[in-house]
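INTERNAL AUDIT FORM
Audit reference: QA-55
Scope: verify that the stored structure record matches its stored sequence.
Auditor: D.O.
Record contents follow.
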Amino acid sequence: MDPTNRDSMMDEARGGALPPGLTEEEALELQLELTKVDDEIQTLKQVLTAKERHAGELRRRLGISPLSEIKNNITKGWHEVQSSNAYLTASATLEDISRSDAYKKTQETFSQAGQLTSSALSTMGSAIRNRFGEMRALTYNNSPGNNYAMRHSLSMPAIRNSATFRSFEDKMSKVIGSGANGDDERPPPGNNSAF
């Protein structure tokens, strides 16, 4: 070793207070070893960078894109997940649950409830559509230039005279009448100030 280099290392080792139980010679040896390790790390980084560049060039020449690498990594990761103990255990548990009677009964109940709800909503939609059609047909004026008649035909008086509204009005008057004074009298059809 060069004496000047050795002296500079000794100065470096002396630069700070030496840890207890460590002589200057031991500090010098540790400093030399640290320098060697740092040099090796730097060399390994350079080699790794060169190898990565070479691998990238080989991939490019083979037509392997970064996207295909990601796809392969995901596929490999998914395969590892599927073969893991946790996945296999959970899968077996879910399979057992789906075979149970309680699950089958619940599934059937939800299926029936869905069918009944769908049927009820469909029926209700058809009834509403038919009622609106009836109201339009009752009040529609066929004269081509009569805009007022067309606007008026879809207004409140036309709705109040429909069978649907009268049925609703009857039910509401019974609720209101029995709650307010106990009688079931219905207000006259032309005087609907409450609505």
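Auditor finding: record pair retrieved intact. The longest helix spans residues 24-62.
Action required: none
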